[in-house]
Design goal:
Length: about 130
């Protein structure tokens, strides 16, 4: 099994910044390739795609709502994925989850569908006040 642990969430005023981290562990993760994604879910709402990054970081994807404000990156040597969140808005308030998508023989492109991901963290709360 792959274990994912998010950190870096908290309370911030509108216009501020936070940097989320997702640390992966487990023998399976170390021996295979994974694309990584960030999702978020507000109370009473569906989980939505935020951003994703391919195994070698050659491809990234962002939801329109965060494009230009958020930056995803990864450090495979540290088994860690980051989400730098700038110019935060109250609408960004949610629990943020990281997820790992096991690469197929066809490649390791970013997917936006939550069901495509094999492993999930437990989430970290991000609250943006106005």
């Amino acid at each position: 099994q792959v274990q994912l642990v998010e950190s870096g969430g908290g309370l911030v005023q509108a216009g501020g910044s936070l940097r989320l981290s997702c640390a992966a562990s487990g023998r399976t993760f170390s021996m295979h390739s994974y694309a990584m994604g960030w999702f978020r879910q507000a109370p009473g709402k569906d989980r939505e795609f935020v951003s994703g990054i391919s195994w070698r970081a050659g491809s990234t994807d962002y939801a329109d709502s965060v494009k230009g404000r958020f930056i995803i990156s990864r450090d495979n040597a540290k088994n860690t994925v980051y989400l730098q969140m700038n110019s935060l808005e109250p609408e960004d308030t949610a629990v943020y989850y990281c997820a790992a998508d096991y690469c197929s023989v066809y490649g390791c492109r970013v997917k936006r569908e939550s069901y495509a991901y094999d492993y999930w963290g437990q989430g970290t709360q991000v609250t943006v006040s106005s």
